[in-house]
Sequence to fold (245 residues):
Amino acid sequence: MRILAKSDIGKARDMNQDNFYAAQETDKIKLFILADGMGGYKGGEIASSVAVYSAQNYICNNFEEIAKDKETILKLITDSIEYANLMVYERSKETEELKDMGTTLDVCLIYNNKAFIGHVGDSRVYRIRKKIMRRLTTDHSYVQGLVKDGKITKEEAQTHPKKNMLVKAVGCNSLVEPDVMCKGFLEDDIILMCSDGLTNMLKDEEIYKILLENPENPVAALINSANREGGIDNITTIIIDATGD
Fold:
């Protein structure tokens, strides 16, 4: 398994409010977490940091104790995001300047040729298999609802003025209901996790093309490409490559 991860401030922001955790290749627990914070000066940075730290600790402290069947691992993922949500929510009530903070949160745990994924917000998780890149997560955004209802097209969503408006995020309420799923993660599969600083700058087909053309350092190539397109937001990318397993 090859693991590549990087976060970049982009070209337009004064602060990087993305945070991530990526396991090392030698780590027993193959855990990957990405969060894109929001909520005023420092609020987004704190929200994403608290969310990543809380979810990581929850999973690492409990994984060895649980049964390793699909339902139990998915419950662990759900519980970790609910715990992270509560930690961010409680922190947001400590001071006035943090009251509106929140964050996206994506968790991916690789175990026994499977990817156990939890998702809140509009950061994304993709899987590349047999030369096809498929988005596994659905954005919890206002415009995604418009697309689902057939009111706008996917192309129109890309430039919609409210495309960054979330309908679900971590830390904004005392309770959150994440999407969770279990997907196969086989030899030659690749999982891409990214914040919307990447996907707002590059279309899915462009992302896939860059991945194909830059096998040695795809993360750097993706970030550089997003910055060339304007880099209007922080850009975080995690690649988990099962090639050679």
DSSP finds seven helices and eleven strands in the chain. Residues 2-241 form a domain with the Phosphatase 2c; domain 1 fold (CATH 3.60.40.10).
